[in-house]
């Protein structure tokens, strides 16, 4: 990484691009930022780390002009500033790329970039604008067709459009809110190339992330927040270890390796036999897929996103119809039955889409916690809900699973992504499940929360629960699973025992090479190297 | 690089207004914004009256007097409010599930028809005592309204047919259906109305007790208002205290999550449309049994559609529906005193407009800061 000590723009009086001093921001019941300081040097990548709800997003939303601080000062290039809107922030050269993109799907890249600008005033010289945007792309290595419509683009390309939008508006400082959460490993590499190109041109970047490896790879300095306070102020990335960062974030030591008891599998709880299903676009998503999960074991499904994993989870839980095959849960066929059939058989489901499926944003946290058991005593007696019991149970789960919320009456839409996931986990795990279908259970969570989820899943396994784990984090699959099944274009690519699984073998299955071939190729590689 | 720095604008306001999303909404705020938007609506309405050459203050004073001025007119206001309460509740309940039942008007007519059938068919002998025939009429009214809700409900649940269109269209069928009967089978010697119902089918009115309490003489307020008041308690209980209410709120907020939670969306949709239609049907029954005492074409002064406005104005709160119904009852009652159609209707429109606009205050905190 190029270490830029001399800012290209030496006319400025301060060598800090941004200084935030003693920022305080209160929300009802929460002190999001408690006299937080943050400095950004010109031409550096500065990572902002912290657990879910540590106040990172709030701090950056203040910097981007979305919130006003209750106290504290912001200096840009040494000059104090007051932002009343994101427009003011962008005028001062601060641009934020949000986690959820703010693009119009039916419009082109160029149209999205110029949206909301006062120039051009009436006529749109599209050719000229396309050319300007292409020139901008050239400089930063952000390749995307200016004439393409947003809906045609991949997530990584859409992110490039967001970055271009900010550069076109003249942003000198770019705030990136968890930019890698939605990207594939290749796209992450490309993003890093872009970020380095931007730094080389004198831009400064604030990089919000949970992923410690990435933070250490890309940033020059690191600031860590915990519960709204700074626990490490701009420490250099070089010479810092993952363990130290995790400790600063969580406030205690975090163990990255997982101690697993030996697996003692019992009877078959889930047997998916010869299942075919279609995806939302009517294309085959599962092709004669079969899998068995026994009590007391974790079976991991490894596959590149979009190869039928999500559809598999939906077929098992009754949310998607299958066109052939059987889904046996504890010996009974539940294929094509209502979702209630699976719930009745104590199947817990941690869905991929926590906002759209796993929670009800307009209802309270307490109401969200009773989604699965609102039909049963003691939550309801016949027709009537037992409100005191609902509150008591919600408060208990909130404490037990460490869900950070001012109260159980707060609407679920106001919880951060990580806290919402904790709430979903609390609901699904507390029901005493027989089978858990966990899809991306730790996506977007911080290290402390990931550790907690992993421990909870292992505890359930040792209790005798059957667990089907679907994840795109290969390390997670390898660390937790007792058996690993590869999936490629909806087909079963073979199975590996945890002991014999290696990244290479799993990778081959994910790329569409059946297991028999996996062994053969690895042997060949062995011969060549040996 | 900046191809387009937003240049400093020549003229700026001396202060800036910013919107900040609210984390929580205080309990008193919805009531405050509703009252505030009513005040604003009457101010705008006053402006229009002034432009039209009227004196807004005199007009409003007259409105209040004509609706709430003495016991007699207040009685008339409450009589008008009675059907509005039930229809408003019917809409508020369905809207909670994001089922847009625009068909309360038709369900109201069908309910009136069903109740009439008990008397006119006759399903029960004409001299059946009130204690039996009135509950039978209520049941028939509810059932016919529910049937009128069942059809669009089933179409919505099974084939995803837009319920706004079907319920709206079925209003016309319902009105024509009632006209068909009052012009034909049930016509009173060729007039476009049925014969007067016998006294035993009338809902008890205050004036019926004038012999015991002379002050009640001439007060036509009937038992139907209690249907509304009791109905609001029942609806409140369903929504906030019952298992079904939880499922209603869940479906209304996020249908995908409801499905994930194992809620049967098809059954709930059909059932909700039936209950909503049934309540509107009960309003139709109460109107002919309590006020009109016969079946005829003109039994509703747009009650079904006013109910939609009432439900919104009450922010789908069943108790607020009662208060808003009284207000609108007064507006209908007093409106006739000032003008047959113009100003009262305009006020209804402006009120709805202001109330919907005020919703932004519930979701955002507005901060005004000096530059």
SSE arrangement:
The complex is a heterodimer of chains A (530) and B (371).
Chain A: E1 16-27, E2 30-41, E3 45-50, H1 56-63, E4 71-76, E5 79-81, H2 86-91, E6 94-97, H3 109-114, H4 126-140, H5 155-168, E7 173-177, H6 185-200, E8 204-209, H7 212-218, E9 221-226, E10 229-236, H8 242-250, E11 268-278, E12 284-294, E13 298-302, H9 309-316, E14 324-329, E15 332-333, H10 339-344, E16 347-350, H11 365-369, E17 380-381, E18 384-385, H12 387-400, H13 417-429, E19 435-439, H14 447-463, E20 466-470, H15 474-480, E21 483-488, E22 491-497, H16 503-510, H17 515-529
Parallel strand pairs in A: 3-8, 3-9, 6-7, 7-8, 13-20, 13-21, 16-19, 19-20
Antiparallel strand pairs in A: 1-2, 1-4, 4-5, 9-10, 11-12, 11-14, 14-15, 17-18, 21-22
Helix pairs in contact in A: 13-14, 16-17
Chain B: E1 15-21, H1 29-51, H2 56-68, H3 71-96, H4 104-120, H5 130-159, H6 163-183, H7 224-241, H8 243-253, H9 255-260, H10 265-292, H11 303-313, H12 318-338, H13 342-363, E2 364-370
Antiparallel strand pairs in B: 1-2
Short description:
The complex is a heterodimer of chains A (530) and B (371). Chain A is of the alpha/beta class and 530 residues long.
